[in-house]
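Q: Can someone sanity-check these two? First one:
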Amino acid sequence: MIDNLPPLKQVIDTHGLAAKKSLGQNFLLDLNLTAKIARLSGKNEDHDVLEIGPGPGGLTRGLLAEGARRVLAIEKDERCLPALAEIEAAYPDRFSVMIGDALDINPLDHLTPPIRVAANLPYNIGTELLIRWLTPPDWPPFWDSLTLMFQREVAQRITAEPGSKAYGRLAVISQWRTDASIVMNLPPEAFSPPPKVSSAVVHLKALPTPRFPADAKMLQHITATAFNQRRKMLRSSLKGLSAEIEDHLIAADIKPTDRAEQIDVERFCALARSLKSQS
């Protein structure tokens, strides 16, 4: 036991916390695993940690037991509040909860830098939250690193290399501004209830500056357009961006007949600079 609180299965039974599919909930009950994920997020004695969707608090307890300076959790499911209140009582002044939707809440007024994010993200909002964290108006972002659990398919999309089927917009945006790697794989049976797919933990460390210069909005627009029609040649899928799209592609060292999945992050950034220069 990592603390003096009861086992998670007992917590779930006591408070009637059957996972809700509508909230994308799959609870990780093994406290040894949650402690390992907490360690993978880094040494957090000098960091505040933001957690999304703590549920009954397995990862929360791991983060606190491993020494996080402070943990702020955002939870939409009010059923979880009594269980989280028990953790708050066990770790006074180091843990607090905000109730609400993580997509609607700005937690920064309640956090003190440096900040890390660690979460077993609800499946139904995980990708949207990641995109938001990767595309703030200014860089570097409020967070030093993200340690996030996703469906394994999503984790592979984040870390994919050019030429692979998983390579797409998510890989370009993630790898442009972070060092991203899969640090842990988890089978369905590690969760309650077991999801239909395997899961993986991805660690993304923010780079001080993006890997290559580019306008963020232009890069997002290009990649969204290109990968939305990934089977088409880029001169066709991107023709709506410029009447001289072939010239811009050639200037970025991209063959007009190439397809999106063949283009690495550096050349997408070169294309973004070229197109931005015309506007």
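And here is the second, same format, sequence then tokens:
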Amino acid sequence: MRNLFESYAESPKFIRKTLWKIWHNFLVFRDRDFEIKYMNYGYADIDGNLEPIELEKEDEPERYCLNLYHQDIEGNDIEGKKLLEVGCGRGGGASYISRYFHPKSYIGLDLSKKAIKFCNANYDVPGLTFIRGSADDLPFEDSSFDNVINVESSRCYVDMDGFLSEVHRILKPNGHLLFSDMRTEDGNELLKEQFKNAHLKIIKEKNILPNVLKALQLDNERRKSLILKKAPKFLHKSVNEFSGLIGTERYRLFEDGIMHYYHYTLQKVD
């Protein structure tokens, strides 16, 4: 029988949400030296769509994970804007965008109390703050943000419609949702209906699966090394699956085209 992490992709949303919380809390305990800042699958710029950026030495090893955020905001002028990231996880993407693209302010929000505590303890970037909150009950006033960022988080949400409704509420007029996550083809059709029902107009849609798959291939050894270092041996198989290493079920779902990975830029409309 497959364990919970191995069957993660096919699990009900409430199970996926619980597993994410367990994994975040486990990392807070094990990653005392702050080596794991990103938990996304990454993006390899195989089609030359990203404007090259020179990374600081400390950021270079995680370029593929950073690229996933980079492609999410590509083509959007966020300098001097107010940004919210829903599902910020361990805060690496929030730190990257704040340091390299200079928004006026950036709030990272996550449901995990320990993840937020971790972020507040490890990042000191001007204009960047982290708070705890739920994706379907955002603790902000109407029309508060120019852009909302959501990277590889929404698949865990129990109430996706509630999340999108909240995004529409807190975005300023003509504000944007910058969204990237995995879905099956059928799941993507449902997602587009949910966007429409939430009055979020699709400005850009792209299946970035080839880029994500290539990133997993190129970043496989680094990920494997971190797992060997951070996870106890009895959890290696489960964490390998969770991380999408080559040979896992999650990797096979991507490789076989059963699971896709989509980016959307969406605009608030009345």
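A (reply): Looked at the second one. The longest strand covers residues 171-183. Strands lie at 82-86, 105-110, 128-132, 145-151, 171-183, 200-207, 260-268.
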